[in-house]
Automatic annotation (TrEMBL):
Annotated membrane topology: Single-pass type II membrane protein
Family to which the UniProt record says this protein belongs: Belongs to the peptidase S26 family.
PANTHER family, per the entry: CHLOROPLAST PROCESSING PEPTIDASE, SIGNAL PEPTIDASE I
Keyword entries, A-Z: Cell membrane, Hydrolase, Membrane, Protease, Transmembrane, Transmembrane helix
Annotated GO MF terms: serine-type endopeptidase activity; signal peptidase activity
Organism: Virgibacillus necropolis
Reaction catalyzed: Cleavage of hydrophobic, N-terminal signal or leader sequences from secreted and periplasmic proteins
Protein's name according to its UniProt entry: Signal peptidase I
Primary enzyme class: hydrolase
List of catalytic residues: 41, 81
Residues annotated as domain Peptidase S26: 10-164
EC number(s) recorded for this UniProt protein: 3.4.21.89
Subcellular location(s) per record: Cell membrane; Membrane
A single cellular component GO annotation: plasma membrane
Length: 174
C-alpha cells in the first residue's frame, strides 16, 4: 500500500513538471521572450545592456501602433526601435518637428536634444504592410532613415513591454 502511494506521488510530480515545462516552452515560443539592448540608439528610453521582455503575441491579434517600441528581426542581429510611420502614411521631419500626413506630431517620448539632432528628411511615403521606425537617440540611431529602410510587418517580432535587468531599473516601457 505504501509503495503504491509513493509511486502515485512520483507520477503526479512527473506530470506536474512535464506540464510546467510544456507551458514554459509555449509561453517562451509564442507569447513572451527576452532581448538584450545593444548600443545607445534608444537612450533615454532604453540603455545599452538592459534586458527587456517583449510580447510576441500582441501583433498576432493587433497591428503595431505609433510609439510602440518594437523588436525587429534581421539576419545578423535584432534591433529595438520606435514605430513612427504607419503603412500608407507620409513622414517628414523639418526644423526640429515631426510631421505625419502634413500634421505636426508631438514626440513626448524623446528629449529636446534628440529633436535638435534629427536632421531634416522627407516627405517619405511608407509603403503598405511596412513601417517607418527611428531610435529615440536620433543622432546615432541606425533606423528607417539611414540603413534599416522600411520595416515589413513580418519582420516585427514583438512589442517591448518591460525592462527586467538591471533589477533596480524595472520599469514598463512607454
Amino acid at each position: 500500500m505504501v509503495k503504491h502511494k509513493k509511486k502515485n506521488e512520483w507520477l503526479e510530480w512527473g506530470k506536474a513538471i512535464f506540464i510546467a515545462i510544456l507551458l514554459a516552452f509555449f509561453l517562451r515560443t509564442f507569447v513572451f521572450a527576452t532581448s538584450i539592448v545593444e548600443g545607445e540608439s534608444m537612450i533615454p528610453t532604453l540603455e545599452d545592456g538592459e534586458r527587456v521582455i517583449f510580447n510576441k503575441f500582441i501583433y498576432l491579434v493587433d497591428e503595431p501602433e505609433r510609439g510602440d517600441v518594437v523588436i525587429i528581426k534581421r539576419p545578423i542581429k535584432n534591433y529595438v526601435k520606435r514605430v513612427i510611420g504607419l503603412p500608407g502614411e507620409t513622414v517628414k521631419f523639418q526644423d526640429h518637428q515631426l510631421y505625419i500626413n502634413g500634421e505636426k506630431y508631438e514626440e513626448t517620448f524623446i528629449s529636446e536634444e534628440a529633436l535638435n539632432h534629427t536632421g531634416n528628411f522627407g516627405p517619405i511615403e511608407v509603403p503598405e504592410d511596412s513601417y517607418f521606425v527611428m531610435g529615440d537617440n536620433r543622432a546615432i540611431s541606425k533606423d528607417s532613415r539611414n540603413g534599416l529602410g522600411f520595416i515589413n510587418a513580418d519582420d516585427i517580432v514583438g512589442r517591448s513591454e518591460l525592462v527586467i535587468y538591471p533589477f533596480d531599473e524595472w520599469t514598463m516601457i512607454k
